[in-house]
Automatic annotation (TrEMBL):
It catalyses: Ca(2+)(in) + ATP + H2O = Ca(2+)(out) + ADP + phosphate + H(+). It comes from the Eukaryota. Pfam families: Cation_ATPase, Cation_ATPase_C. It is found in: Membrane. This is P-type Ca(2+) transporter. Residues 504-673 form the Cation-transporting P-type ATPase C-terminal domain. It comes from Gossypium lobatum. GO terms for cellular component: plasma membrane. The chain crosses the membrane at residues 12-30, 56-85, 479-499, 511-530, 621-641, 653-671. NCBIfam families: ATPase-IIB_Ca, ATPase_P-type. Its main location: membrane.
């Protein structure tokens, strides 16, 4: 959008410059251009060749000056300054920007697809419930569990894990390492069922391990016990409802294995649902024994997946992060939709979504607000496009489902931000308009694929990045409004003056000076504006909104018209009004023009609010830049006359210039009273 805008403005400037060049050449060669003595500057063959060349070079210089004025060459610098400053400030808010453009893109985001664990929640798992078969077991009842069941649980927890337990000394407190889920289960087993992980490893040989994967949602291990080498035991651990479907028996706390009929299966299913409704992650354990005969051990290296015996079920609580609900509400208020993508089952996902504010009573009326990954995957392309807006939560999802959702949302025209921490999330992070990886739990692959790294893995920081993104976009718009006001005013005054009198009041050096201080110092002043709460009350700009809004056009045209009117009055009546020479009149035009921009810089701080001074005391850099600009302008006018083609001004003339420029404030206030359809 910025490239198109710059190109469009440049073409207009070039067209006007060519027009001015033609008009001035026609005026000169038809004898309408007057020399300093009042006579015609061109008198046919009587005019010397050197004089003709000097005049033509002067005309070309005037046309080139218009091109210089028209093209907003300061725009890339302003954008870079804004992005770089914001990137530095965002580091303080726990966001490391890897790609500068992502700062601005985040401000246009319409949808955020977020993970649950560690982003919306604390990722501090703790086992709060344990069911053995169909019976709840609390800490005081663990001694009632039969020894054979305790042994099976110890094997299922201690051998089928990616976590480790380290005990420096026998009497010391065990140190547990691993993922939050593994640490929570190991901690529970050590404290509640008396797990001795070293004893389990000594008494069993591990034959085969099946690592956890996001499709099966389980991990398994095949072992041989040292006291009975003819029996191979399979232990599975994973998603409760998936393991339940693989079981045909269950153990009670007395250690008796019972056949599981349909009623009992439904009863255990209800237990899983009730735990999930309390936002607990449900992890189940199941086992199976196979007796092998001599010579056929090689046929039993694959883990059994049917006819398993249900051991038990633990519920892990992962509390929501403090402030996450307010952050979600803030994003919703800003018109940004939040979609949660998680590997948990539907009931747990729904409970967490309600707790975080992603789902509410209205969205719960839609049965399609919560879907499973496999269901979403099996939709046709047309169905996905129809239902994607309704979906708020995707449970039991895989990284491919996340990628599919991002692609579908982008096809619908959304600007999509995605959070991810795993290696498998890399395609979705790459595909998204803004990829947000996690700094703590995130893998290096995820970080390399992302645009911004959230250093504290907190969704609140994602909302802060959104706020900063909108601030960047808003600051770029402020500068565009400010820059175009300068360009339009200078272009019109030089064009009208050139066509009417054959001369330009603002020389090339003066206009280059204006461009220099307005593009660099002006950009820096507006780039340092801090984000305000008002930014989160607006709708997202999305992918197709114009860069220059109607509000900007209103402000820009009003200020440009005022400046053009004042400068034209000074151009044609300035000598008689102030009683000064031509050179002093041109200096007055130059000085008034620059001061108008300095005062208009205050107007540009807020494009809609009438109080342009609100919070200005917090931005000391803005005030310092204004002060530096005024000092440099005074030096330019008073001490660099030969270089800048200026003349010294009296105190009265300075006062008149400041007074005229200061009128931009009340004009800006009045203009903002005019309603604009947004």
């Amino acid at each position: 959008r910025l490239s198109k805008l710059t190109s469009y403005i440049g073409n207009i400037g070039l067209s006007v410059a060519v027009l001015v060049l033609l008009v001035l050449l026609i005026r000169y060669f038809t004898g309408h251009t007057k020399a300093e003595n009042g006579r015609s500057a061109f008198n046919g063959s009587r005019t010397k060749f050197d004089d003709v060349m000097n005049s033509v070079v002067g005309i070309i210089a005037a046309a080139v000056t218009i091109v210089v004025v028209a093209i907003p060459e300061g725009l890339p610098l302003a954008v870079t300054l804004t992005l770089a400053y914001s990137m530095k400030r965002m580091m303080r808010d726990h966001a490391m920007v890897r790609k500068l453009s992502a700062c601005e893109t985040m401000g246009s985001a319409t949808i955020i697809c977020t993970d649950k664990t560690g982003t919306l929640t604390l990722n501090e798992m703790k086992v709060t419930e344990f069911w053995l078969g169909k019976e709840p077991i609390d800490n005081s009842m663990s001694s009632e569990i039969a020894p054979n069941v305790l042994q099976l649980l110890s094997e299922g927890v201690g051998l089928n894990t990616t976590g480790t337990v380290y005990k420096p000394e026998p009497a010391s407190v065990p140190e547990i390492y691993g993922s939050p889920t593994e640490k929570a289960i190991l901690s529970w087993a050590l404290n509640d069922i008396g797990l001795n992980i070293d004893e389990s490893k000594r008494s069993c040989d591990i034959i085969h391990v099946e690592a956890f994967n996001s499709e099966k949602k389980r991990s398994g291990v095949l072992i041989r016990r040292s006291n009975n080498k003819r029996v191979l035991a399979t232990h599975w651990k994973g998603a409760a409802e998936m393991l339940l479907a693989m079981c045909s028996c269950y153990y009670d706390k007395k250690g008796v294995s019972k056949f599981m009929n349909e009623d009992e299966r439904a009863q255990i299913g209800m237990i899983i649902e009730s735990m999930a409704a309390k936002s607990l992650r449900c992890i189940a354990f199941a086992t199976s024994d196979v007796t092998v005969t001599d010579g056929n051990e090689e046929n039993h290296t694959k883990l059994e997946e049917t006819g398993l015996t249900w051991l038990g079920l633990v519920g892990l609580k992962d509390p929501c992060r403090p402030g996450v609900k307010q952050a979600v509400e803030s994003c919703k208020k800003a018109g940004v939709s939040i979609k949660m993508i998680t590997g948990d089952n539907m009931h747990t996902a729904r409970a967490i979504a309600f707790e975080c504010g992603i789902l509410n009573s209205e969205s719960s009326l839609h049965n399609e607000a919560v879907v499973e990954g496999v269901q979403f995957r099996n939709y046709s392309e047309e169905e996905r496009r129809q239902k994607i807006e309704t979906i708020r939560v995707m449970a039991r999802s895989s990284p491919f489902d996340k990628l599919l959702m991002v692609q579908c949302l982008k096809q619908k025209g959304h600007v999509v931000a995605v959070t991810g921490d795993g290696t498998n999330d890399a395609p979705a992070l790459k595909e998204a308009d803004i990829g947000l990886s996690m700094g703590i739990q995130g893998t290096e692959v995820a970080k390399e694929s992302s645009d911004i790294v959230i250093l504290d893995d907190n969704f609140t920081s994602v909302a802060t990045v959104l706020r900063w993104g909108r601030c960047v976009y808003n600051n770029i718009q402020k500068f565009i409004q400010f820059q175009l006001t300068v360009n339009v005013a200078a272009l019109v005054i030089n064009f009208i003056a050139a066509v009417s009198s054959g001369d330009v009041p603002l020389t090339a050096v003066q206009l280059l000076w204006v461009n220099l201080i307005m593009d660099t110092l002006g950009a820096l002043a507006l780039a340092t504006e801090q984000p305000t709460n008002d930014l989160m009350d607006k709708r997202p700009v999305g992918r197709t909104e114009p860069l220059i809004t109607k509000v900007m056009w209103r402000n820009l045209i009003a200020q440009a018209l005022y400046q053009v009117a004042i400068l034209l009055i000074l151009q044609f009546k300035g000598k008689s009004i102030f009683g000064v020479s031509e050179e002093v009149k041109d200096t007055l035009i130059f000085n008034t023009f620059v001061l108008c921009q300095i005062f208009n810089e205050f107007n540009a701080r807020n494009m809609e609010k009438k109080n342009i001074f609100k919070g200005i005391h917090k931005n000391r850099l803005f005030l310092a830049i204004i002060g530096i600009t005024l000092v440099l302008q005074a030096i330019m006018v008073e001490f660099l006359q030969r270089f800048a083609n200026t003349e010294r001004l009296s105190w009265e003339q300075w006062g008149a210039c400041i007074g005229i420029a200061a009128l931009t404030w009340p004009i800006g206030w009045i203009v903002k009273c005019i309603p604009v359809d947004k």
